Amino acid sequence: MRGHSNVQGNRTVGISEKPSAAFLDSLQRVMGITPPRHHGHDAVKALEAMIAGDAKALICLGGNFAVAMPDHERAFPAMRGLELSVHVGTKLNRSHLLTAKETFILPCLGRTELDLQASGRQSITVEDSMSMVHASSGKLKPASPMLRSEPAIVAGLAKATLPASKVDWQYLVEDYDRIRDLIEQTIPGFENYNQRIRHPGGFRMPLPPTERIWPTATGKAMFSVFKGVHENVVVEGEDVMRLVTLRSHDQYNTTIYAMDDRYRGVFGRRDVLFMNEQDMAAQGPGAWRSGGYSYRAAGKRADAGRYHGGGLRHCAGHRRRLLSGSQRAGAAELSG
């Protein structure tokens, strides 16, 4: 799942359902393989293929796929209808329990755990949102001596599936520097990769806008002005508001680290739906305090469960509700 803390780094090294022709050409030149040229599926298209029965197997390198999807009523049965599902992860989550006809859960080392391979202690690399690339090496004793690293698991799957492959998978796993050497040969911007990640703080990837390089017709940055939420068309009726999700404290995407959201004064729970005080008043006394909510997405209505209400002074007049920690988005209305 390209949605964790290294999402930018994943994209940089070509993890995409629509890799560019230049990247595929370079990959073919360096690795001596012929990569497929047709585009793959993003998360939503993958789910649609599962629902249609066109996709029968799912291999997840991390993530909580089904919970991250906005329509659980369709995503959960689709997961259970697969012929095969394989999950590589550091801890159990809901998607792992939506078992297919055959389901394999492969625990892996976390970033904080010591990764020892044939050449010794290993480091992986990550890229932050400022385009800085640095090494990350765990120090803690692994939770189990049987745990394997993600590169070791991927290489093992590849070796077992493609025994005649030109790639020496075991050789790469023995020393992650060898993987980075191949990245350096394949992707621009990674010159002297292994040398530069050993400097404190790592190095910065080339980023054209910071060098005042704009790929536009004028060669200059182009700005667009958004008129504001008051320009939104009411699509469901005056009593129906837009439901959006937002970041909350101690939660990162589908992972909840604690039940407190100190950003908004919420403690001990995550089932809180926020709306503007003016909108609360318009709904009538107590209507928003605690009750059931339904939501509509893609023209279909579904139960969103029970949530507790909370008020916000800002966003005055905005026709929307803010639901901390939910993956659902669409139009929401009070039903009790």
From TrEMBL:
It comes from the Bacteria. InterPro entries: Asp_de-COase-like_dom_sf (IPR009010), Prok_molybdopt-oxidoreductase (IPR050123). GO terms for cellular component: membrane. PANTHER family: PROTEIN YDEP, RESPIRATORY NITRATE REDUCTASE. This is Formate dehydrogenase oxidoreductase protein.
